[in-house]
Amino acid sequence: MLDTPHGRDAGSLFLTTHWSVVLEAKDKSSPESAAALETLCRTYWYPLYAFVRHQGHSPDDAQDLTQAFFARLLAKEYLQAADREKGRFRTFLRVALRRFLANEWDRARRLKRGGGQVPLPLDITTAEHLYQEEREDALPPDRLYERRWARVLLEQVLARLRAEYAAGGKASEFEQLKGALASGRGGIVYGDLAAALGVTEGAARVAVHRLRKRFREMFRLAVAETVAAPEEVEDELRHIVGLLGEA
Length: 247
Hints:
Elements: H1 19-26, H2 33-54, H3 59-75, H4 89-108, H5 124-134, H6 141-167, H7 171-177, H8 190-197, H9 201-224, H10 233-245
């Protein structure tokens, strides 16, 4: 079972918004297709679950509907209609879910956890807790869906950055430094950070600079893989930063 709707084990996964993963999932002849589909599900299931809940469905119905939607994604080959040149994959999924709810939800809600199929490992208890925390938000459901997805992307980038530091034997350094990613330049007390790291203040400044630089590189790469063309990256970055700023 996933640890959270955002996937605490994301460091072991691809950045799952990558179109390469979508293409792998679409190719049923590939031995990696099932793993790619599971990767996509791990990324998108909570934003989709919350979207269904926002339409007024109960937690049980929302779980059944989310499971059924992903099952239909395979059974009816919805993924075959996904095209990188036609826009963002998250938008494709949201539109497909809207159609699914409008046309098939009454039958799907009668399915018990996927109608006999192996269910996705959805952590509904954690998902519902997060949903209750967010439910008072006045944003429209489409905007909330976008924001939830942006949080998933951010957390996966952080997970990969953490894994990279850990692989270099610097897991403890990352834990000390990570707060600097959310702090303004004037909000970091370098003396305290240097003491925590056991280095000079100058070395602490260099460490923060390197962390931020690497994070920006990884985040930009992740965003670039969600758009159809390089010239869309800057606009998408601004869009995602704006979404995260609403959180």
